Amino acid sequence: MKTSDKILDVARQLFNESGIRNTTTRGIAVTMAISPGNLHYHFKHTEDIVIALFRQLIDWYDHIIEQVQYLSLECIDDLIPILELIYEKMDEFRFLFLHFVEIGIWIPDIRIDYQHLVAKRENQFINWLERLEEQGVLVTLSPQIKTNLVKKLFIVGDFWMSYNTLSYRYSGIEAKKDYVDTMMSLLLPYVKDR
Prior knowledge:
- By secondary structure, the protein is mainly alpha-helical.
- It folds into 2 domains: 1-44, Orthogonal Bundle (Arc Repressor Mutant, subunit A), CATH 1.10.10.60; 51-190, Tetracycline Repressor, domain 2 (Orthogonal Bundle).
- The protein has helices spanning 3-18, 25-32, 36-42, 46-69, 80-92, 94-98, 100-106, 108-134, 143-166, 172-187.
- It is elongated.
- The N and C termini lie far apart (47 Å).
- The mean pLDDT is 95.
């Protein structure tokens, strides 16, 4: 594994455990038993590490969404393994989800990337809903319902972890199940012949 990848891996773990404001590049270097200079050769500032981790997550989502776009489903429950996989990745990058608004204010590049990403994802999700209609999984939805449903999927997907942390505090399998159930509950009213 390249040093830069190791730095990102350790930083992600420390951000998850201690938060972004309590994790410094010096602390990351100490945890890795490397010099701060070695770390700064790869990432000048903590912000650079956060940006790299955010883009890592986005690349992973791009890959998953590409797969989901063309997935043939027989029923809505076929989505459960995908939602579980998404939850597991969210948990791996939970610091981003827990501190996303703060990160977006602190690092304008991430806020700008997110705005572009939302526009791209909205189109992808609307196309995906149309495929589910064609496959007979969902009833035919009006354009306005599709737009509103995509918005709800984004809000719940991006902020479920914050809500859970402040309210129920589920963890492990219980957290994954609640996330999946919550996401499925958004789609269930539109399922055909359920």
